[in-house]
Amino acid sequence: ASIVRKFHAQGFDVALSYRHSESPARTLVSELNTLRADSASCWQAEMTDAASVSAFGSAVLAHHGRVDVLINNASSFYPTDYGHSTQSQWDDLIGSNLRGAYFLTQQFSAELVARRGAVVNLIDTHADRALTRHPIYSIAKAGLKAMTRALAIELAPHVRANGVAPGAILWPPSLEDASDPAVMEGRQKMLKGIPLGALGHAQDIAEAAYFLACEASYITGQMLKVDGGRSLA
Hints:
The protein is α/β, with parallel strands linked by helices.
């Protein structure tokens, strides 16, 4: 939502997909269309399903008539203990984080070339350092990082492809209950591992995505870590 608001505030028309969150998606679109008529749309899309990805891409092009920037942000995220992982978990995590992004980008590639556009993929600092108990998720994000570099070559010289790797932006579910002393201890431990000493904000990610898409005219194939220095620790 922060990314959508940032691009819209800069004059872009925006099209967003949702998986299950229809109500907040439509609320956001209504808010943006109130600010500027017919400037926002939303579509249900299942990024693990090839037909749904293709239908979403076709609907966006038919409705808006052009695509200048593609932000691949869809992601499932949950633990998959090694030794007990399932094929359905693999299909969901690889599909939502990697496969859907690849084929949606491919579908839009001719349009992006024509517009001399940009692709920004939302990766993760765990693309470089695997997250314990999340092997499939870590593999998927590492694949998305590799995809970003590959597409920077495949789409050159007309389209730039880059990635944003968020660090700690929101408290994880295990650290949400601020009334629990153990949770507060866990929060302090996490913050000690961040050189800037605080969580980031969703707006930090939106600003990074906009920078890479619209201002970084000589940057491609790179991953920008927005993590307060956490990956240095």
